[in-house]
Design brief:
Function: This protein is a positive regulator for the phosphate regulon. Transcription of this operon is positively regulated by PhoB and PhoR when phosphate is limited.
Strand order of the largest sheet: 2-1-3-4-5
Bound molecules: calcium ion
Radius of gyration: 19 Å
GO biological process, one term: phosphate ion transport
GO molecular function, one term: transcription cis-regulatory region binding
Distance between the termini: 18 Å
InterPro entries: CheY-like_superfamily (IPR011006), OmpR/PhoB-type_DNA-bd (IPR001867), Sig_transdc_resp-reg_C-effctor (IPR016032), Sig_transdc_resp-reg_PhoB (IPR011879), Sig_transdc_resp-reg_receiver (IPR001789), WalR-like (IPR039420), WH-like_DNA-bd_sf (IPR036388)
Structural class: alpha/beta
CATH superfamily of the largest domain: Response regulator
CATH architecture of the largest domain: 3-Layer(aba) Sandwich
Largest sheet: 5 strands, parallel
Helix content: 40-55%
Subcellular location: Cytoplasm
Shape: elongated
CATH topology of the largest domain: Rossmann fold
Strand content: 15-25%
Length: about 230
């Protein structure tokens, strides 16, 4: 089954810009990978095809346009929507003229709200079923679009990390996830987080899930990890 959280790759060399993008996309419930240059971006795309790429035009080394062209020329990545960021509107005109295959263009400085709307618009086109998907397991329901989780009619207040953990579990009930796999899926492979952090967040998730009663649906599998049910 496809992941509930769309995976967005951000390719931007400026750390502050990357952080802003990351923060905002994560708050919208996306899973994020970050690359600071074209080579890193191409490598990441070859390892795991994202659902969408936000691609800066001006990058050290391989330019955004070249990356766009390469991604759009490969059958396995051709359909991944690319939103290009550029510093000036003349560049946008050039991108259009070059027919790189980018799906959308945003001029810097952009409004975060506008960019988020463009991202969602592209994802709605490319994976219509992924947006607004609702998962349920026994008396728990999770709405991927509104980020609302209910258990037995009660609205649960989950932090973003607990939400992502639960979404991961609910995609495949019964599957045992190791701490490393959860780190990859929920925190991202580039982030260094101690595996004990997983236990802390699982603890929080359990607390919220059982806040209004009901059995603990999460199972600790000794020596292996965690599972839902
Ligand atoms: Ca740049």
């Amino acid at each position: 089954m496809r992941q509930v959280q769309p995976h967005v790759l951000i390719v931007e060399d400026e750390p502050s810009q990357r952080a802003v993008l990351s923060y905002n996309l994560e708050s919208e419930g996306f899973r994020i990978s970050e690359a600071e240059d074209g080579d890193a971006a191409l490598l990441m795309v070859s390892e795991e095809v994202p659902d969408l790429i936000v691609l800066d035009w001006m990058l050290p080394g391989v330019t955004g346009i070249e990356i766009c062209r390469r991604i759009k020329s490969r059958p396995e990545t051709r359909d991944v929507p690319i939103i290009m960021l550029s510093a000036r509107s003349e560049e946008v005109d050039r991108v259009r003229g070059l027919e790189t295959g980018a799906d959308d263009y945003v001029v810097k400085p952009y409004s975060v709200t506008e960019l988020m709307a463009r991202v969602k618009g592209q994802l709605r086109r490319s994976r219509p079923a992924g947006v607004g998907e609702t998962l349920s397991y026994e008396d728990i329901t999770l709405d991927a679009e509104t980020h609302r989780v209910h258990r037995d009619g009660h609205l649960l207040k989950l932090g973003p990390t607990e939400f992502r953990l639960l979404a991961t579990f609910m995609e495949k009930p019964g599957r045992v996830w190791s701490r490393e796999q959860l780190l990859d899926r929920v925190w991202g492979r580039d982030v260094y987080v101690d595996t004990r952090t997983v236990d802390v967040h699982i603890g929080r998730l359990r607390k919220v899930l059982c806040a209004h009663g009901g059995d603990d649906p999460l199972r600790t599998v000794r020596g292996a990890g965690y599972a839902l049910g």
